[in-house]
Every structure is written in C-alpha cells, then in structure tokens.
Amino acid sequence: MRAPARPPAPAAPHPLRGPVLLIAFDHVNVRTANLDGMRAFYVDVIGLRVGPRPAFSFGGAWLYCAGAPVVHLVQVDRAPPPSGELSLEHFALRAEGLADFLERLRAHGVPARLGFIHDFGVCQVNVRDPDGTHIHVDFDIAEAKALDLVP
C-alpha cells in the first residue's frame, strides 16, 4: 500500500516581496462623448481645476484636487451604452464650505440630495454629472448642523 502524498512544502518568501501598503486613492477614469460639458461641470460645479495631462493620442482632460489629478476624462466618439448594472456606482470627494457648495449647485441648476452618516460625522451631497455618474461630496456634519440641515 502506498503512503499518502505529502502536500508540497510552502515556498520560501521572495526577498523582494513584502506586504503592500496602499497609501492613497489616485484617480478615477471617466469615458465621455461630452468632453466640454463634463469638463465644465467638474470645474464650474464641483470645483476641480484643469491641469497638465500627458500628450496622449486621444482627447481628454485631467482634473485636479489639491494638486493631484483625481478625475481623468477620456474623450470617446460615442457615449458607452448603459449595460445592466453599472460597474462604477459612484466616487466621492471630501470638501469644506458646504454653504458655498450648495449655492454653486443652485446657481448651476444641479439637483442634489443630502445624506447624513451620523456615526461618522459626514454630510454627503449627492449629485450626478452630465453623463449621469453619481458623485458625492462629503462635508463635516458640523457644517450641515450650522446651516440647520440635519434632521
């Protein structure tokens, strides 16, 4: 009778591999057939700034927050058709100046829905960009309390 096979010995750790430490979110890439409208929305409504972008062979814009390019717009000929469930439900930004932001939304006719996460001290301002992507801009709930917006 044959002895049962032994499992292989664990491999020795590779000397150049170690734990990975993620340090920051880098960016979100959004494809759009409405580059000008999307750029205007993210700059004029959300408050990002247009900044340097590599000389790619396709149109687009890199939009910056606090010196980092966090939204990469990529120009496409046709808007991607909706297909079932969205793969990107939303992305979020953190901000200060809730009253001014709400006024900016009103001035641009952008509807918003407020959400409150009391146990984390967050007021979310939920909006959609011209292509329908959900974005929430998060503020300290104290700003919402000062404006008497918290239920």
Name its key features.
single chain; 151 residues; alpha/beta; 3 helices
Task: Put the structure in a nutshell.
The chain has 151 residues and is α/β, with parallel strands linked by helices. It has helices spanning 35-46, 98-107, 141-146; strands at 28-32, 49-51, 60-65, 68-75, 90-94, 113-117, 122-128, 134-140.
Characterize the structure shown.
With 151 residues, this protein is of the alpha/beta class. It is built from 3 helices and 8 strands; from the N terminus they run βαββββαβββα. It has helices at residues 35-46, 98-107, 141-146; strands at residues 28-32, 49-51, 60-65, 68-75, 90-94, 113-117, 122-128, 134-140. The strands form 2 sheets. The chain has a 4-stranded mixed sheet with strand order 1-4-3-2, covered by helices on one side. Strands 5-8-7-6 form a 4-stranded mixed sheet. A hairpin with a 2-residue loop joins strand 3 and strand 4 (68-75). It is extended. The model has no long low-confidence stretch (mean pLDDT 87).
